[in-house]
Design brief:
With 192 residues, the protein is mainly α. The protein is built from 6 helices and 4 strands. The strands form 2 sheets. A two-stranded antiparallel ribbon has the order 1-2. It has a two-stranded antiparallel ribbon with strand order 3-4. A hairpin with a 2-residue loop joins strand 1 (55-59) and strand 2. It starts with a helix and ends with a strand. The relative contact order is 0.16. The structure holds protoporphyrin IX containing FE. Protoporphyrin IX containing FE is lined by residues 50-51, 57, 66, 68, 72-74, 80-84, 117, 127-128, 131-132, 138-141, 144. Protoporphyrin IX containing FE (HEM) binds at residues 50-51, 57, 66, 68, 72-74, 80-84, 117, 127-128, 131-132, 138-141, 144.
Length: 192
């Protein structure tokens, strides 16, 4: 038996397999680069209000009024809503602030958490939309939106389908084009 094991080690080492009893090679985990970013400006003015709005929510056939950001749902401290975390009291951020400063704010944390629920190139398959629509997935919070034509869904979809240009970050001025007129501070949120 011992001979068999030793023979096995010798054979494996000979085939370049290395010593099977050795520790495995370190797993390389380089930071993700080249990932597309969504518009922070559009999130702040057009998506955050959806996450804090009082909406009719139907759970087990019973409809109540609740917000995505409420406690028990996606509130940052008391929520049970999985990875989506929303600070309902997040203050509006001046877009003229530096990216470093904006990234320390609650509004930016809401943006980052919501962007984490997005699949680029598949807006309707993104959890941010699929969950409250209960579209091919269950949602602990029940049905929040009745259909894809709901104006809130249309806005979320527009945000996801209009990412910032390749190589540009979430503060890119390309975000102005998501508003009419094309001004992130004063324009109306585009929805299609
Ligand atoms: C517009 C409003 C809402 C949106 C966009 C939303 C979105 C989401 C998303 C993306 C997830 C998956 C999080 C993960 O990746 O782990 C989720 C899960 C969850 N949500 Fe919501 N939600 C909303 C409203 C609500 C409300 C009002 C409640 C409470 C009544 C709620 C309760 C939950 C719970 C308990 C889960 C965890 C269980 C699960 O994964 O389904 N949600 N929701």
């Amino acid at each position: 038996m011992r001979l068999l094991i030793l023979t096995g080690i010798v054979v494996l080492t000979g085939c370049g397999g290395g010593n099977p009893l050795d520790n495995p090679a370190d797993v390389a985990n380089p930071p993700a680069t080249g990932a597309r970013k969504l518009s922070f400006a559009y999130f702040q003015r057009c998506i955050q209000p959806i996450l804090t709005a009082q909406l009719p929510v139907t759970l087990n056939g019973v409809t109540t009024v609740n917000s995505c950001a409420s406690s028990g749902c996606h509130d940052d401290t008391s929520g049970t809503g999985g990875a989506l975390r929303v600070r309902g009291s997040a203050a509006e951020v001046a877009l003229s602030d530096t990216p470093e400063l904006i990234r320390t704010t609650d509004m930016y944390r809401n943006f980052y958490s919501s962007q984490g629920e997005v699949v680029f190139g598949d807006a309707l398959g993104s959890r941010l939309i699929a969950k409250p629509l209960v579209r091919n997935v269950l949602h602990g919070g029940g049905i929040v939106f009745d259909s894809e034509t709901d104006p809130n869904v249309k806005r979320m979809r527009y945000w996801i389908e209009h990412p910032m240009p390749e190589g540009q970050d979430e503060f890119s001025t390309a975000g102005n084009a998501l508003f009419t007129p094309a001004d992130a501070a004063t324009g109306v949120c585009n929805e299609e």
